[in-house]
Design brief:
Length: 243
């Protein structure tokens, strides 16, 4: 108990007294060690009641120095110093009773996040193919997703449209190399070229069925709308553009 109080007193004297010279041998490394020890004691609710007021004053002083963007105090670089305030008696009981459940919860949640994003990434990468037979009388629809998304963004829309026999074949494409991320080298021009290439593949698919495709309906969400506009203005091969 004495060692803990000595840490509090030492840090308190450094931050909260008018003395210009720090204690002998005190440097940034030692000061950080003392502050971390106090913070750890606070976190684990091992703080003497008599030390609580001093710790609160220390925290206030550190916050004040950071607000003032002070980096050097009493000759020591303190920008890395961090401390937490002591908890109430109720919080101490809460921490003591829920420590193990909280550790289990955080561990389980971390594992769940890894699994969820792993499965989602695999699922998002899969190209969703439309198995409906291509029919000449309906104009195909191409959906272009928004930023940080991919063609799976339109799954519900596709399912809805594919239930109606009076709607054209529905297509989607992936602009990004991987789900949940934007390509660093991406641009409207690059994405518009991908749309151009994809529409060419649609025309080839229709040609295999004996149809000469003349029109494509393009629907873009958010960034996808910008890409559609870029394609229509610069790369669209059709003689007539309707918006």
């Amino acid at each position: 108990m004495v060692a803990r109080s000595e840490n509090v007193d030492s840090v308190y004297n450094f931050f909260c007294t008018e003395c210009d010279d720090p204690e002998e041998g005190l440097n940034l490394k030692l000061l950080e060690k003392k502050v971390k020890k106090i913070s750890r004691d606070v976190l684990w609710s091992n703080v003497d009641k008599s030390d609580s007021s001093k710790i609160i004053e220390i925290k206030r002083k550190i916050k004040q120095l950071k607000r003032e963007k002070t980096t050097t105090f009493k000759g020591i670089d303190i920008k890395k110093i961090r401390i937490v305030a002591p908890d109430s008696a109720g919080m101490k009981v809460f921490y003591a009773l829920t420590l193990i459940p909280r550790i289990i919860f955080v561990f389980a949640r971390s594992i769940a996040h890894v699994i969820m994003f792993g499965i989602s990434s695999i699922w998002y990468k899969n190209e969703r193919q439309n198995s409906r037979k291509i029919e000449k009388k309906f104009t195909p629809i191409l959906f272009i997703h928004g930023m940080s998304a991919n063609q799976r963004q339109f799954d519900i829309t596709r399912l809805f449209l594919e239930k109606h026999n009076d709607v054209g074949h529905v297509f989607t494409l992936n602009l990004n190399k991987s789900p949940f991320n934007n390509d660093e080298d991406a641009s409207l021009e690059i994405y518009a070229q991908k749309v151009d290439d994809y529409i060419l593949s649609i025309k080839q698919r229709y040609a295999k069925e004996g149809y000469d495709l003349k029109d494509v309906i393009i629907v873009g969400h958010s960034m996808g709308g910008l890409v559609a506009g870029q394609y229509a203005e610069n790369q669209g091969k059709q003689g007539h553009l309707a918006t």
